[in-house]
């Protein structure tokens, strides 16, 4: 049984190699076909075209059945070609996730085998997860502490940020005030400037304000994202003016119009923005690392640290080479899984909004 | 003002001028508040209690002479109340965007700038000179090295992943069954934490070595071995690798980054190109079919030109994003970005000096990055204008 | 090229699960002689566009046959049929210039550059857009785009030219001009042409042969004038002509046709309930006339005048009678009497709505 599993694992290794080869061969084939077509086109003379539509005549007569059959074969071959190609791509796209999940269930010995297994052949190590969950660093920051940090910061900065985005976008789209266009232009211009330029100054500002190790420092500087304002403003602008006038005649205030008409109409964009902003917070790494010490950091910072078998109950028996020793890859993979899973869950439930939002904005938050 | 005619016979008591003045003033102040209160109430409470004619007049913004003072004020306040709405965003941006940008430009020119005391020794280009000459006294990769790394990653991975994304999108666009499923799976890598997935990629390529009698060469090397090739030391191993027969190739580590960049860049590009292709009117394909265009012709003469705006958009954003990459490198090579920052990127370089407390160099580096991005944008605009065929 | 459509049927599966399938075209049989301009006419959703797309090969029929000359092309792919198709909204490739658009089919046929250029220019001349060759479609007006689309369809010298609602995206004045243009081009090239329209006036004015359709079923085929003068059924009679025909509920009793209590014509059909259709131009004012109409008002249109009347038996709210402007009508009359031209009066069975002939 063990050997069978091992063998199958080896087979999967081969499969991966095969997939890469398939993709390379297919791409090569496409290029070759194109080049051949080109050459053929150049070689063919115009003379062969004359009488092409003389449907009844022709060299061997015109056999509709035959043409049809040839077409059908071509289509089937093309379909097989395309599906094989796409499947290969899909497998390669998914492979890192599969590897990550499987590795998180292996024990360290199996993980480090010279021939990798594609399945935890030595049993599922669920305890990898409990060990990671129980770990705390020297400052006492456990996974839970970090998760709470991330959720608090994520929810607060997302909700406040979205409100600011809506209000600002509304003013820019619907209201007339002096200097509006200049203001909007300046805001857009800041998108050209790399964030690093002001991150450093912000860091110094925060140091001066003694804001390190607070949630405030994680929330305030990133409330305004010009791109989302821009996106939402454009969305607002698309709502016809006649709707506004109709609402006015119906006795709706400006504010009421914003809440009761514009927000529902642009709900898909708003949901996308909310999701992407939250994902952005979840993935933030640079800023929290800069301004906060471990207790106050975010989930991505937590992943970068090493995890070793140091909490009781120990995963490996005393005397084992992994016992309290070096940092363990399987534990790291378990941590990576834990950070990635919420994103997947979010994706499963909000696939439509996330994909729409991404295709519109193209930023991670 | 206090006109005698105002105080009619019905007034029960006549006050003297002084008192009258204060009463009048009080009334005016009260009126002022009432005006504002009505204005605010109108603004939030709507026109519910006003007659339709006036609403209509409002809509056409008829500035008739019959407007009362309150009405005038209401109009005036409403005309500028936009500032009230943008104020939160504006204030935040002033503090955390506009001012910092200004500060960065100023501080970059201060030599030996101490952020806490605010002291510095003279103003000049010394920071820039030192950054460019690699004369910062900390060792590790120079700015130029980091810039070369960044450009290398970007220039190879962005066109590669765009081309691959184009091919995949075309394939995806040509199928009917399971289209959504493939699209979803291919989009998955987008939603990842680049640090976490960088770490996973690192394990694919890492040779853990012969330590403790375990010969682990990493998944990629396993594939190589399966093909009968020698394993390659992709990422510098922590322990000796020669008894595994691993070969050292100096540029192998670049391949790791490029593979990761292509993998992580594909989903977004596929999404954009695929949705662009989906929105091409089916009639163009019908027309092309009637015109006898082959699949190849349709791809290169209809589909590709029609998504050319998206392709150029992807190239531009890809290059911009590529110039700012940082976290993926940390994920793969650790916080030291390889051995002593030899895989450093421009942003990595900047943050390294932030960590070191040498803010002058960090500012100088970030301004250089800004200038480089400006130049690239400029080139992009030139090229795009020439080659985007329509729209 | 002669086109023969035999028992052509197209059934679209229902969009919703368990719903009824849609019969877009049912058992259509038409013979189109070579070199004719044929109009498929009918209200929207009558299957005329589906028929056109089946002719083009973009849509495949559920059953039945299409023959070009004697060759069965039913299952042949669009690009092999040698047809030119002009789409309703032209489908000009926005990224190509006019010249590139016109040349596109030739490129696909691998025709040499010089020959291709010459043919493209010929086609452009035919539709009079040779000055616009370097422009992109979005720099052209609707009418010009239409011409480019026609040139693109003609440049490959097709066996059959198909036009899908060619005039519907043009404004009224341009429409008139373009339909003359289509007629001219068709005459000059002699290509068998099929076009689809929902505008009966448009079809009547340029067609050699007109095919009237309703809900996927062909109602009548023939020359426009003969269909107008001799409609097969109530639908056809109603669909053709502006202003439309007047329809009255009537009956046949003992060889006389009654509308209300008045006898408007003689007939030799058996007694039954009928619809009596009278073309607006079929009325002759006569103080002693057979049919009395309460007048609502009179519209003077210069060439002739139009009496707008009501009648309790009319199936429409108003009855329109068009009479010569030199016929003097009594001023202020509330009722007018008319005689009916017998060849402008059609009888339809009240149940089947078929014409009584």
Architecture overview:
The complex is a heterotrimer of chains A (365), B (391) and C (357). Helices cover 69% and strands 0% of the residues of chain A. Chain A is mostly helical. Chain B has 391 residues and is mainly α. Chain B is flat. Mean pLDDT of chain B is 76; it is low at 1-11 and 46-55. Chain C folds into 2 domains: 3-239, P-loop containing nucleotide triphosphate hydrolases (Rossmann fold, 3-Layer(aba) Sandwich), CATH 3.40.50; 246-349, no CATH class. In chain C, the strands form 4 sheets. Chain C has a 6-stranded mixed β-sheet with strand order 6-7-8-3-9-10, sandwiched between helices. Chain C has a 5-stranded antiparallel β-sheet with strand order 13-12-11-14-20. In chain C, α2 runs parallel beside α4 (142-154). The A-C interface holds A 41, 44-46, 48-49, 52-53, 55-56, 62, 64-65, 67-68, 71 and C 68-77, 80-82, 109-112, 115, 158-159.
Give the CA-based shape of chain B: flat
> Roughly what fraction of the amino acids of chain C lie in strands?
25-35%
Structural class category of chain B? mainly alpha
Identify the CATH class of the largest domain in chain B.
Mainly Alpha
The figure for the number of domains of chain B is 3
How much strand content do the residues of chain B show?
Answer: under 5%
CATH domain topology of the largest domain in chain C? Rossmann fold
Q: What's the tally of helices of chain B?
A: 16
Shape of chain C: elongated
Largest beta-sheet characterization of chain B: none
Question: What would you say the CATH architecture of the largest domain in chain B is?
Answer: Orthogonal Bundle
Question: What's the quick description here?
Answer:
The complex is a heterotrimer of chains A (365), B (391) and C (357). Chain A is mainly alpha-helical and 365 residues long. Chain A is 69% helix and 0% strand.
